[in-house]
Amino acid sequence: MGEPPSTRTEPPEEVPEWQRAYHARTDPHLRGTSLADLILGGQDGVVNVLGVLLGVAAAGGGSRIVVAAGLATAFAGALSMAAVAYTSAVAEADVYRSERDREYRHVRTVPTLERAEVRDIYARQGFAGAMLDRIVDTITADPDVWVAVMLSQEHHLAPVSRSQALRSAGIVGVAALVGALLPVTPFLFAGVTVATSSSVGVAGALLFGVGAYKAKRTTTPVFRSALELMAIGLVSALAAWGIGKLFGVTAG
After folding, report:
1. Which of the ends of the chain has fewer CB neighbours closer than 10 A, N or C?
2. What's the confidence (pLDDT) of residue 206?
3. What is the DSSP string of 24-77?
4. Is 86 helix (H, G, I), strand (E, B) or coil?
5. In Å, what is the CA distance from 238 to each residue of 57, 77, 79?
6. Which residues lie closer than 8 Å to 241 by C-beta, 6 or more apart?
7. Residues 6+ apart with CB under 8 A from 91
8. Closest Cα to residue 173, out of 54, 88, 52, 69?
C-alpha cells in the first residue's frame, strides 16, 4: 500500500519589503467609490450653479440677483446631493441585508440548488474535476462563507456600513459646494457681462481639472478625459443660458 498523500503545506512566501511599499504607496489600488463621489459632487455643483447663473444673467438679472440665485442654488444643491448620496448608500446597505437574509434561507431550504449555483459559478471561471469538487465542498461547508460567496459572485453585492454612507455623503456634499461656489465668485467683483464670461472660464477650468484628476487616478488619457468632462458640463450649463435668453427681460 502506498503512502497516504501528504497534508503538509508550504510556509507562506515572505514578501519583500519593497513590494509592500510599491503596493501600498507607489501604485496603490484606487478607491473607486471616493473618486466617483468626488466627480459626482464636483460636476453636479459646477453645472447646476453655472446653469442658474447663466440663465438668470441672460434673463436680465443684475449682479445681486445673480449672486443670490447662485448662492441659494449652491447651498441647497450641496445639501441635497449629500442627502441623496447618504440615502442611496443606505438603500444599497438595505438591499445587501435583504439579499443576505434571502441567501441564508435558500441555503437552509434548497441547499442542493445552491450548491449547483456555486458549482456553475466556478465552472464558468475554468475550474473542473476534483479541483472544482474541492472548491464547492470547501465553500458550502460553512454557511457564512457560502452566503458571502453567493452575494459577491452571483449578486455582485458588497456590504455598505453607515460610516461609509456618511463618508460618501460628506465627499459629495463638500465637492458639490466647492464646485458650486467658484463660478459665483466673478459676480462678486465684476458686472454681469464680464462676470458671465469669467464664470464660464472658471467653470470650464474646474471641470477640466476634475477630468484630468480622474484620468490621473485611472488609465484614461488625461486630455480626452478632461476635455470630455468639461464639454459635457459646459454644454449642460449653456442650455440654461438659452432658456434665459428665451424668457429674457430688459435689465434695469
Report:
1. N
2. 84
3. IIISPPP-HHHHHHHHHHHHHHHHHHHHHHHHHHHTT--HHHHHHHHHHHHHHH
4. helix
5. 12, 18, 24
6. 51, 54, 55, 57, 58
7. none
8. 88
Could you write out the DSSP letters of every residue in 142-198?
SHHHHHHHIIIIIS------HHHHHHHHHHHHHHHHHHHHHHHTHHHHS-HHHHHHH
pLDDT tens, 115-154? 999 999 999 999 999 999 999 999 999 999 999 999 999 8
pLDDT digits (tens, 9 = 90+) for 91-104: 999 999 999 999 99
> What's the residue count for the chain?
252
- State the virtual CA torsion across 170, 174, 180, 186 in degrees, nearest 10: 170
Report helix, strand or coil for 16.
coil
- Interatomic CA distance for residues 160 and 83, integer angstroms: 16
Instruction: Give the span between the Cα atoms of 205 and 196, in whole angstroms.
Output: 14
